[in-house]
């Protein structure tokens, strides 16, 4: 599954339990309306139902149910962007510009850890990704002693 989808699905469910949910929900429905206008009203109603389930799971300290609900939403997002790189880019923008900033610092860290992405092209490139501190030493250049 696409890492952006995983992070976005997690961010949607995490945002449901916050006081800024209405703004996050509006952003998700706007994205959906642009990408799949015929589904937007249904998605809005489904988000309301999902929020009720997330809030009940939180009240019961039922993290397994909350994780399952996030998984369901990830699948829905995966189907929504299937085969459309432009929609994936818009989902990434939604994640970084609308959803993640509305989360608590702890939840932002969780989502950021999920959505790390790196690309290297060419030769002799190094990519280092870390959730916290990283110490990296470059190997000696070829032919040096």
Key phrases:
6 helices; coiled coil; 145 residues; globular; mainly alpha
Rg estimate, integer Å: 18 Å
| Euclidean distance between termini CA atoms | 44 Å
Number of domains: 1
Work out the helix count: 6
Percent of residues in helices comes to: 55-70%
Structural class of the helix and strand makeup? mainly alpha
Order of helices and strands: HHHHHH
Mean pLDDT rating: 87
- Global shape: globular
Largest sheet: none
Flag low-confidence runs: none
Question: Into which percentage range does the β-strand content fall?
Answer: under 5%
Number of beta-strand segments:
0
Keywords: Coiled coil
Coiled coil: 40-67
Word description of this protein:
The protein has 145 residues and is mainly α. Helices cover 64% and strands 0% of the residues. It has helices at 3-16, 21-35, 40-59, 63-81, 85-99, 105-114. Helix 1 (3-16) packs across helix 4 (63-81), helix 1 runs antiparallel to helix 6 and helix 2 packs antiparallel against helix 5. 24% of the residues are buried.
């Amino acid at each position: 599954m696409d890492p952006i989808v995983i992070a976005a699905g997690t961010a949607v469910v995490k945002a449901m339990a916050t006081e800024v949910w209405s703004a996050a929900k509006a952003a998700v429905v706007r994205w959906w309306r642009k990408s799949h206008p015929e589904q937007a009203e249904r998605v809005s109603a489904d988000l309301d139902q999902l929020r009720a389930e997330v809030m009940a799971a939180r009240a019961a300290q039922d993290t397994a149910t909350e994780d399952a609900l996030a998984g369901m939403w990830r699948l829905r997002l995966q189907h929504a962007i299937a085969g459309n790189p432009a929609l994936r880019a818009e989902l990434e923008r939604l994640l970084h510009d609308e959803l993640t900033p509305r989360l608590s610092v702890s939840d932002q860290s969780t989502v950021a850890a999920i959505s790390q992405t790196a690309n290297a092209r060419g030769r002799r490139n190094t990519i280092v990704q870390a959730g916290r501190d990283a110490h990296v030493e470059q190997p000696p250049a070829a032919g040096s002693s």
